[in-house]
Amino acid sequence: MAVEGVVFGVCAVIVLAGAVGVVLSRNPVHAALMLVMTLFGVAVLFVAQEAHFLAAVQVIVYAGAIVVLFLFVIMLLGVDRAENVRVEPLRGQRPLALLVGVAVLVELLVLSGTQWVTGARSAADPAEVAAGGSENVERLAESVFTRYLFAFEITSVLLVIAVVGAVVLARRPRPEPAAEPVADAAVEEAR
Amino acid sequence: MTATGIDPAWYLTLAALLFTIGAVGLLVRRNVLVMFMCIELMLNAVNLTFVTFARELGEIDGQSLVFFVLVVAAAEVVVGLGIIVAIFRRRPDATADDVSVLKG
Hints:
A: 191 residues, mainly alpha, Four Helix Bundle (Hemerythrin (Met), subunit A), 8 helices, 73% helix, B: 104 residues, 74% helix
């Protein structure tokens, strides 16, 4: 009880500080690093809730791959300069955004405070799980590769489509003479 | 409530706060990259909720769902960043307001 309480308290502060940092930092690089902080905090919370495999995947995929991809794009595009936060192009957008945020928060808190568990509990024996009869990774593997096997196969198709889409999107257009002048200028500038 | 551990409502409250921060950031910021990071924050809040309920109900299905959310998030980031690179190649200082008409 006490240990998990302390872990939760520390990680909650880390997660929330990182999230606020993402929203408030003007430099995208700082926002990406704050995002790493939040992701690590969430990974520790996964460990605290006995989701060990997901914690590892969280660190490897999110903090490792996705944030590095973000940083690559930031550096590649050279957009690591501060955003002008004084300009508010849409009048009244920010107060409305805060209002919507507060409304969402109140709704979620009311729901989580009153009736947040519906449905039957698992028939699995908690004593067996606690005794290490089946570890987290084994249970997750059994679930993914049996009950959700079709969804798992579909995700492979999704990943292939994503890779092909990224290649098509990021490919430079060929500098042909028939191309329109704007595209030519963009290609010349990119060189 | 599990025998050992704190009340799961704390985890749900933290996830609600994280989701709210992400949503407000998505609405307030105009840098497309930072908006994208705010989407990641919201996805993480949902993942935290899934894991909490998976433990609370003694089922592994919530964790399986988080696994799939991770895969979809990775695909989404790849395609989204590809789109952002394509936009910035044409307009080097574009914000979300400048590309609101889906036209170069």
